[in-house]
Specification:
Translation Initiation Factor IF3; 4-stranded mixed sheet; alpha+beta; 4 helices; about 100 residues
Amino acid sequence: MKLIYVFIVIATLQVGCASDIPRLTTAGAGVRTISPAIAQTCKHLGLVSSFTPGVFGGIEGAHLDARNKVASKGGNAILIVSSHISGGYDHGNVTAEAYSCTFS
């Protein structure tokens, strides 16, 4: 019987943690990745950075969070400056430039 309670507690913790994984917003889904050449033709909005622990999505979560942050600045384009995994737990780190571009 104790084993069942242990499984229930573990399942509850996993569901609670899953809600902390970054999700791409509707606005974030509209953010395009651009090259440095294209960035020169766009309006620069500033830097964004994201750190996401491995258990909350790691590098993939950090990329999603960075896109959402670009969108929250009014941008529609992202230029990744650095993207790497750190630590023994696959933590994700992303630094990027936010841009507002006119795409044809």
